[in-house]
Amino acid sequence: MSVLSLAIGAASAHVHDVPCRAQSADIWFADDVASTAKAQALCQTCPLQAECLTGALERQEPCGVWGGELFDRGQVVAQHRPKGRPRKDADEIAAAAAGRVSARLAEVSLALAATEPELADLVAEAALEVAGAA
Prior knowledge:
Elements: H1 3-12, H2 19-22, H3 33-43, H4 49-59, E1 63-66, E2 69-72, E3 75-77, H5 90-112, H6 117-133
Helix pairs in contact: 5-6
């Protein structure tokens, strides 16, 4: 799912108050923790959160906050990494982040099951893929 298809979906659903369109684009791609936390909190109120996260995972977005999760080099990360040597426990942190994403996708899939069964199936498949990668 492309960014363009998300925008088209928002327009066709008459969803004009999505946070990423109402806020400055800088907070979605900021390097500081405060801006990232604000962007993630705003994503929690977005009606397109599941679609945005699924699309970002499919595209392996290189950076930014997408669907409430922080992406760095195409992967979901828990927080911005400081400059310097990588952490020794980086694999464990990545696995924990993937577990959180998988759990959130599973929750979204259950919530969508009654109203959007096809989308719920796609989100459930994404949750399984993320869980398998962890």
